Every structure is written in C-alpha cells, then in structure tokens.
Amino acid sequence: MQVCHTVRDVREVLPRLPRPLGLVPTMGALHAGHLSLVAASVAANHTTAVSIFLNPSQFGPSEDLSRYPRNLQADLALLGQAGVDLVFAPEAGELYPPGFATWVTVEGPPAVRLEADRRPGHFRGVATIVAKLLLIVGPDAAYFGQKDAQQLAVVRRMVADLNIPVTIVAEPTVREPDGLALSSRNVYLQPAERQAATVLSRSIARAQRCYQSGERAPLAILEAMRAEFRSAPLAMLDYVALADPATLQPVGTLAGETLALVACHVGTTHLIDNAPLAAPHPLTEARIVS
Ligand code: PAF
Questions:
Q1: What is the largest CA-CA distance in the chain?
Q2: Model pTM score
Q3: Most CB atoms closer than 10 Å: which of 68, 119, 124, 196?
Q4: Which residue of 23, 38, 129 sits with most ligand 1 atoms within 8 Å of its CB, as the best mutation to test the pocket?
Q5: Using a 6 Å cutoff on CB, does residue 55 contact ligand 1?
Q6: Catalytic residue annotation
C-alpha cells in the first residue's frame, strides 16, 4: 500500500495502477462503516484508493474539528489489512493553500433544510472537498455511506451538475447490534449517552412500524417518531423528517420511496440516522458489527 501526502505524488503513482479505480473518501478515525465502503470498492475494482483528510471547511465555528478523533497510524494499519492500494493523506495546506478562493456550492435541494439548516456552510465544504478529491484521483467509482443520506444526495447532485465522470456508489449503514449507526462521533458518548443514542434507530423503527401497519399521514408518523424521544431524556431532538431520498425535501404524501430521518444531540454530540420507511426495520437494511 502506497501512502501519498501530496497531489503531485498521487498523480505520479496512480497512472501505474490498474483500472478500474475506486475511491473511498474519509476523514479518518476509521470504523467498520468505512471498512464496508473499502470492501465494496476492493470487490468491484482493481485498484482502491482511500483519502484520509479531516476537512476543516465542512466544520462550523462551533463544531468539533479540534476534538475530532485522529489516528493515522491505526487507520493505515486497517487499510493495509483491507487490501487498499493507495492512501492519500494530505495536510490541510496541501488542499487549501494560501489564496484558495474557489468553492463548490449546491444552492438548492438537496443542500437545503435538515443538516443544511443546522450546519451552515457544511455542504459547501463537503461539495468542495469531494469535487477536489474526484479531480485529483479521477476514480471510476466513489463510495459513500447511506447513513449520511443528505451528503450522499448532495454529492450525487454535484457530480451530475458538473458532469464529473464517476459513478457514485451508496453502501448500507453499518450498525451496532442494538441499532446504533456507526459514526466516528460515537466515541464521544459517555456510557449513559451511548445507551440514550439508541433512540435514533428506535425512532426510525417506530416510523416503519407505523407505515407498515397502514398509517399514511406523514404528520402522524412524525409524531410517533418524536414520541420515542420521551423515553430518552438525555437525547435532545433536532428534527424528524420524511423526505424524498434524491432531494431530501419533506414529502406531503407517502406515494414514492421515502426516507425517515432523525437528528439529535446527546450531550454535545450531534447524531443522525435514516432508513427507508418501507423497509421492515433499520436493522434489516443494515450490516451489523458485533
Ligand atoms: O463523510 C465524510 O467522512 C466526509 O464528509 C467526506 C465525504 C470524506 C468529505 O470530507
């Protein structure tokens, strides 16, 4: 496995590696969710590249950039075992040099509402760095997790709008056996908070049960999702939503494919989750780690 820290090194090494090429963009602090993206890329491509870059531009001033977990050596060990061919791990100055002034902004849906309302500038940072990584690496396919449903939709929109020749592949959320979706942020949770955080997947499971028992009124399903939070006082609900998976805008009727989404704070940690309303239970749509 080759480890590159500069754009120049990536451009020198990559042409010697066989295509097709898959890219897994990450911010490091790798867990089984990232490794499932890597496994999907390794299975489908001759070469897999992983980027590890804690992208400052997608963190707001009050967000957790400085406390975000970092462990490059542990990440490299995991990627070596997973069959990755190239890791791109640049410093911030390599991708945002002095004078940097060009941003990619998705101005309409899916980059409005939900996370966009709570994290101003977040999707500008994500779209910009993903566009840069796609231009630097030039993969045939790039792999993203369905847990970040709005990010996935923003990346798809950006790639379509800018005619970037890459296939965006979405992989199922990986969960703990009790339903909690894996996230690098889960390490911040104290034991009682970790227990409370299961409310996210319980809230989604409740929406799915409602839907499957015949309820078709969005407001009734949203109220059932909110009700789940009454049993988890440590979790502060940010939003529940029923939205179109491509636009992430709320649906008025439950006619087409619909995602149930939820976001909350547990302590100072922001957690999100989602699953299709028509799926029987979040755990059945997911890969489980033990
Ligand atoms: O999902 C993430 O880890 C990040 O948002 C991404 C896609 C690597 C961009 O920094």
A1: 57
A2: 0.96
A3: 196
A4: 129
A5: yes
A6: 34
